Amino acid sequence: MAEDRSEGTTIVIGDDHPLVQAALRDALGKAMPGVRVIECPDLDAVMTAVGERPDDVDLVLLDLNMPGTHGFAGLFLMLAHHPTVPVAILSALQDSDTIRRALAYGASGYIPKSLSMAAMADAIRAILCGETWAPPLSAASVEAEEAEAARRFASLSPQQLRILTMIVDGKLNKQIAGDLNVSEQTVKVHVSSILRKLNVISRTQAAVVAGRLAVDGDALR
Predict the structure, then answer these.
(1) What pLDDT score was predicted for residue 113?
(2) 9 to each of 39, 104, 125, 185, how far by Cα in Å?
(3) Contact between 92 and 112 (Cβ < 8 Å)
(4) pTM above 0.85, yes or no
């Protein structure tokens, strides 16, 4: 069994439910003495917390439906900005397809919220020790189509991922430029690159393809 390295460990929890945050904090405190837990209610807070101490964060727990995550886009954004920081999904969803997609897209683990707090702590300890933890799946293989989607989305830069989510929200280039404080020409260049990388020819098609980043059948928004 791998050595318990909880002493001095820092875990960032991204979840917008205070009760979940509090329960996890207490469970981790009991199971892993000395652990430091940083609680964040949305993706921006998670990105800030990790960005301030990327070398100190040992694990990020990310809720797929937390504000700002846009389904799997939040996972891609975290991995793009901080590729050396393990990210595990913490979610109420536990269907095999969503779990397979999360692991294919680079998550270090998938922890259903239906687990007991003790089981969650055990799963987190396993991930901290370098294991990839997930509940049993009905099928072990990841289909080639999902692997190809993962490859395409992973090729987008962090800025392009942000622009893609804004395209899905129906924003025009001028609005995106204002939100990101860049020139409209810069946005146009990024949009062209996004279309090329996703192998589509229009913003509408890009938005449709981006729906693959959604979870539980919901549109990316």
Answers:
(1) 85
(2) 14, 26, 10, 44
(3) yes
(4) no
